[in-house]
Q: What sequence folds into this?
């Protein structure tokens, strides 16, 4: 099904953004993304369900229920190791609720305390909250707009393709006229010929360079035009989660495309599974970026917890036994179901599909020992 064409109502968001820029000057990139994705009336996630073949992108839980089942078994294992009373469940950015439904299905069979635990959902989209409510109707559900009011209990949490959807800022390296020195400048959203476009902003202050972890060793100078991304809200969410897990116990699986470090300019816009310009009809396109797992680790450690990984999604799912589980299920299925199941597993693990671009990491309370699934990090117990 082709996506609907923008209507007058949709065009209002770009007009509204352009008006704001005319009135008050260029916007930070994070503010632009925030409006394009989250504007209460016209934001991308507020208006529609973007997921699946008929939407703009497909996520692992929408490819196969095995993904949620494996993540559920994994968190059940971590909960079993921790043997804590009164756990709560949390999902950040639950989409259609498919991942949580598949995890709960696994828990109903092997871990009743998790199946009976209240489910907290961090979700700003009213359209998707409705899908989650329909899908998870049998659970005790609590929705949140932020992580400020989590219950004071151990939390077993998951975030799949959540951090990539958070607003980022960018800095661009500009050489001085002489070419001898340079500085990181904010990359802002302004108007060129009356159209939305990137414009240079002021140089980053010393405090900003520190916050962005962008201070350079003396004598080091990036190539002219280099771009660096910073996701302040990802640091905040990772820090809050980590603080909660360090205080009350629990674990949080984070799955997303990204790297263990910055990816330069990774901001991308997608409509109907096709890339488009990042200023194409704000509110109509999905905007996302590559997650910087090193920044998440730094935030987790600063909050008193630890972050294990990342390993690739392929390494993680293979290490926790997805192939074995798929074979067991396939044995009971007819030929056609078997073929589609094995094709789905291939899509999740093989490196030319989702297997290597997507990474998995885990926030845990401080301590030692490498949990299952993370041997490929090369991290040693003492490094934890
Ligand atoms: N985890 C799901 C959906 C991923 S899409 C899956 O794997 O299928 C991103 C999800 O994050 C959506 O549910 C979206 O509404 C939510 N989201 C995006 N930005 C958010 C924000 N700033 N705060 C809370 N939720 C957000």
A:
């Amino acid at each position: 099904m082709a996506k609907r064409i923008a209507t007058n109502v949709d065009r209002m968001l770009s007009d509204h953004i352009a008006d704001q820029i005319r009135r008050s000057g260029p916007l930070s990139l994070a503010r632009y993304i925030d409006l394009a994705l989250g504007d209460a009336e016209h934001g991308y996630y507020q208006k529609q369900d973007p997921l699946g073949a008929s939407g703009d992108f497909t996520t692992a839980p929408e490819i196969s229920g095995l993904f949620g089942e494996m993540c559920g078994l994994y968190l059940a294992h971590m909960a079993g190791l921790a043997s804590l009373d009164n756990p709560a469940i949390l999902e950040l950015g639950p989409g259609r609720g498919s991942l949580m439904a598949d995890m709960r299905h696994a828990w109903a069979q092997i871990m009743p305390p998790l199946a009976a635990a209240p489910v907290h959902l961090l979700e700003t989209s009213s359209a998707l909250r409705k899908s989650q409510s329909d899908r998870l109707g049998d659970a005790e559900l609590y929705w949140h707009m932020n992580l400020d009011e989590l219950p004071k209990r151990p939390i077993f949490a998951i975030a799949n393709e959540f951090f990539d959807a958070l607003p980022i800022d960018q800095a661009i390296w500009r050489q001085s006229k002489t070419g001898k020195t340079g500085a990181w400048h904010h990359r802002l959203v302004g108007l060129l010929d009356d159209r939305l476009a990137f414009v240079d902003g002021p140089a980053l202050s010393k405090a900003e360079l520190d916050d962005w972890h962008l201070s350079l060793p003396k004598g080091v100078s990036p190539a002219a035009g280099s771009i660096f991304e910073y996701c302040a809200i990802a640091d905040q969410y990772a820090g809050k989660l980590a603080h909660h897990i360090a205080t009350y116990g629990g674990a949080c699986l984070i799955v997303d495309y990204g790297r263990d470090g910055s990816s330069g300019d990774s901001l991308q816009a997608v409509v109907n599974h096709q890339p488009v310009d990042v200023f194409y009809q704000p509110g109509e396109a999905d905007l996302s970026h590559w997650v910087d797992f090193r920044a998440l680790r730094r935030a987790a450690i600063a909050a008193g917890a630890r972050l294990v990984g990342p390993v690739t999604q392929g390494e993680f799912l293979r290490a926790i036994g997805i192939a074995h589980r798929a074979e067991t299920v396939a044995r009971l299925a007819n030929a056609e179901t078997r073929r589609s199941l094995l094709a789905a597993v291939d899509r999740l693990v093989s490196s030319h599909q989702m297997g290597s671009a997507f990474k998995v990491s885990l926030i845990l309370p401080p301590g030692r020992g490498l949990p299952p699934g993370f041997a490929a990090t090369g991290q040693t117990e003492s490094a934890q």
User: Anything to note?
Assistant: The mean pLDDT is 91.
